Amino acid sequence: MGLSRRKYATRRGVSEKAVRKAIAAGRITVEADGTIDPVKADRQWAAQTDPAMQRGRNTESAATKPVPKSALRAVDDTLRDAGAMPEAGGEVSFMRARMANEVLKAQTAKVRLQKMKGELVDRANATTMVFDLSRRERDAWLNWPSRVAANMAAELGVDTHLTEQVLDKYLRQHLADMAEIEIALR
Is the dihedral of CA 81, 85, 88, 93 positive or negative? Predict the structure, then answer.
């Protein structure tokens, strides 16, 4: 003769409802008299139950599972950015990881708010606008020698064509030097 559902649940350390669910799902079987053979039921329970679905029993293996170094560095970086110093030794407690998660949520919310208020600038749009502005500025300067060469030549009493060529030569050299400057929008 086996155990009642209630006694088996107590022995197993689960609720009576969990035992009833296991019987209904076919994960464990009852004897002909309606009782549960604990040895047989434990074997069936272990073989037919997904460990990921268990609440209390899987916590020990999760606690001993190694954490990737990249995750540890990410937690330390997040806490350092928030002004909290990371702990020495490379270990991260659950509370520090949770604090890093909360800091990341707050930072994300702050960025979203700044974006909604129009305080942040889209990098791709800014890069395009700087490029377009630089191109228009360059084109305006390239047209400048032909516009002013005649007036300058008249004031100086020199050949107009030669003045325009000299201005164009030095202007192009200057623009080439300026093109070496890189704008980094990080």
Answer: negative
